[in-house]
Design a protein that fits this description.
The protein is mainly α and about 180 residues long. Helix content is about 80%, strand content about 0%. It contains five helices and no strands. It starts with 18 loop residues before the first helix and ends with a helix. The relative contact order is 0.13.
């Protein structure tokens, strides 16, 4: 009795062939590319969130102090009671200058904290450029190897179709 030969059928579409699992070198390149692609996604999201949603960067305090300082400099000044209180209890004879200097110092502290956070965004943008380059390079290597395997698949599929056509002809001739 003749032993039946089991032949693997080539799928109709390349993606069904599971080349990433079939060929370890292709799977390895995909394993390198996947974290590169994920890093680009993560960095893009972080940059978007840090630039689009900037609440918490002291905007409200900066706005209030800037408006208050502008109002005082614009001539609204202080009432006589405030100036009298400042002289008596704080020993301040020029309430206007003392107040503006204090606001300016507070504003500078808040603005510096905001600049530090903005520098972090710039660093993320630099990291993103590097990550995009790594992603593109890993994809290029993966795609080149995948294209080679796809050519092999096309050749095998063509041979399979030719063999199937011959079998059909043989069956017609026998019948």
């Amino acid at each position: 009795m003749a032993k039946a030969e089991t032949i693997e059928r080539i799928p109709e579409y390349f993606y069904q062939w599971d080349a990433d699992k079939r060929f370890p070198d292709l799977g390895k390149l995909l394993a390198i590319h996947t974290p590169n692609a994920q890093k680009v996604i993560d960095l893009t999201r972080d940059i978007k969130n840090k630039t689009q949603f900037t609440y918490g960067h002291h905007e409200y305090a900066i706005g209030i102090l800037t408006n208050l300082s502008g109002g005082i400099e614009g001539g609204s000044g202080f009432g006589k009671e405030v100036e009298k209180f400042e002289k008596k209890y704080r020993g301040v004879y020029d309430t206007y200058t003392d107040f503006l200097e204090s606001i300016d110092e507070s504003l500078e502290v808040l603005l510096e904290a905001k600049r530090v956070k903005m520098r972090k965004i710039i660093k993320l943008e630099e990291d993103l450029k590097i990550a995009v380059k790594a992603k593109e390079e890993s994809w290029k290597k993966y795609k080149q190897l995948e294209d080679n395997y796809e050519k092999q698949w096309e050749k095998l599929l063509k041979e399979q179709k030719e063999a199937d056509a011959k079998k059909q002809e043989t069956k017609k001739e026998v019948a």
